């Protein structure tokens, strides 16, 4: 209902633009949101609320259960990360975007113009429920709880967009929840990684892609897997994993597409070693890397394992790195990269019809690395063409160590993952 007079005593006035009789595009901030929403944690079935407002909260909690899922599992775990993201955006540490939340009121809100601006009035004591963006709303409350006073001040007045749906029944609000959460299609991992300009690892990946001639212009950014007819040679996700494994060793596969701790990391050194090692590797095995039907060398588990071998280069003094690369390549030249029974149970499975299927990186990455790195592994010679092979990495005694137990590079400073 449109009103002509301004009466601040009627409730909280939220500035914005009416999109329809039942929706209002608002520009608000957290200082105001606190007055028109509840902390989502107070609306959970397990919440313990006491005091004069307990009955009101109980009624809202019943409605909440009809239009929103519980704040548990991955949704709850994401609150802390989201809170940190909002804090960095608010403080100007990073460039970011705060997406609009969708808030709902069963009752119709009054809307009135004031000069060139319009306001929706949330009556005093009434609260809107989030039918989309509840994790973000919880993260705002979490940031307010833990932030320093200066950050609280910035956060309290930072613009937050919201769409307010009002005067619609519960059934329609439930449908909105479905449409907003189920119909959306998340981008695949490779595309998501390629778009993440804030990830310092991705900056290193971009340098590697540009400076390794075999990879330049041949990284698949859109698809999760390479099609048979694709002219690309590696996905963005696999290339990122390769760079991570230069720094982490084979333990890097545990992170997948998740953020990798880089406290104290010398990313320039990691990048330089990755460029050096990948250039030599792909120059040596260009035929095998280009023929994905015959060879498994360009599969993600193998490339991740080969990159993990490069961690030995990173941990070697600069004047010895060329020799270590030569030893590694000499060892890898002995490997029979053809798909076949000799890789059965190591890199994948051979079907009764003779078709070899490569397994996932997390599933077989360690086993592939072990047969490439550890001369004492029972399958070390199984995947090689001869019983004699050149030692992979020299030690002070001139022997090749068991690379499977070499600690990841200290560059990454993550003791918990070692």
What does this structure look like?
- This protein is α+β, with helices and mostly antiparallel strands.
- It is built from 14 helices and eleven strands.
- The protein has helices at residues 30-36, 54-67, 73-90, 134-146, 149-157, 170-182, 189-195, 200-211, 236-248, 267-284, 286-290, 300-314, 321-333, 361-373; strands spanning 11-20, 23-28, 101-105, 110-114, 117-123, 129-132, 160-166, 219-220, 234-235, 348-350, 356-358.
- The strands form three sheets. It has a seven-stranded mixed β-sheet with strand order 4-5-1-2-7-3-6. A two-stranded parallel ribbon has the order 8-9.
- A hairpin with a 5-residue loop joins β10 (348-350) and β11.
- The chain is elongated.
- Residues 388-418 have low confidence and may be disordered.
